[in-house]
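User: Please fill in residues for this 69-position structure.
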């Protein structure tokens, strides 16, 4: 998928509170994943919900690596 066409979602790192826009590949549907913070490199646990009909981001839940989300 073309990175320039991916939608973004603003999030804050649960460790250092750095704010950044997360690129989301909506073609994956709803899923859980981990991304490293671009500032402190800590693993961020993400639960991404995609609206199946419109293929838009419904919500993004952010947690630390040990959080159950």
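Assistant: Residues filled in for all 69 positions:
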């Amino acid at each position: 998928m073309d990175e320039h066409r991916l939608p973004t979602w603003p999030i804050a790192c649960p460790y250092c509170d750095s704010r950044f826009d997360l690129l989301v590949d909506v073609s994956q549907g709803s899923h859980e994943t981990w991304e490293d913070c671009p500032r402190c490199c800590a693993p961020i646990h993400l639960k991404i919900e995609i609206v199946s009909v419109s293929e838009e981001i419904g919500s993004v839940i952010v947690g630390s690596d040990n959080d159950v989300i």
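For context: The radius of gyration is 12 Å.
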